[in-house]
Amino acid sequence: MAIDTLMAFALFALVSSITPGPNNLMLLASGVNFGFRATLPHMLGISIGFMVLVLAVGVGLAGLFTTFTWLYAVLKWAGAAYLLYLAWNIANAGPLEDKLPENAHKSGPMSFMSAAAFQWINPKAWVMALGAFSTYIPATSGFLIVALAAGVFAVINLPSVGLWALFGAKVRHLLKVERNLRIFNYGMALLLVLSLYPMLVSAQ
Fold first, then answer.
1. Domains in the chain, number
2. Dist CA 149 CA 147 (whole Å)
3. Per-10-residue mean pLDDT for the chain, 204 residues long?
4. What Gene Ontology terms describe where this protein resides (cellular component) (predicted)?
């Protein structure tokens, strides 16, 4: 994997991991209700569970793309289109309070195993994994490249999702300020669009 592609992939991993989604919103609610330390198993379950999902998707897609070479181009551009759509949604996102899971506070913190298993039914996790391999990782990558991608995602994902639990426990009030939330959303949307640059250049 070329350095510029790796950097773009890392940027994609950061933006997609740190922006609002089911995992982060549940971590935010858990941080508010149970504190940062009690939310640690939830955070670790997300990171490791998603790493396993990325490995499974990467290994499966490598063989699929070998058989259906045209599928790589289709998924590559479909992934780019979705990322632009996601960037638009991020830039125009409303207050976080409107998206919090209604029942997130009614039980104890999510366990490690529950959080890991949740990744397999989390739509954003699937889109992130598919987008990674259809947009940034070569279609015929071997297992070592797939493992590297999964490792990069895991290393970036854990502190990224951890920030949401920390926000919930310590600084959630910062995201209640409309101006701060707007700046954050615009910045994340811009970074997500910029992460597509190497893919667009290589397609020329």
1. 1
2. 5
3. 79 88 82 86 95 87 70 73 77 61 59 90 79 74 84 93 88 72 80 72 56
4. plasma membrane
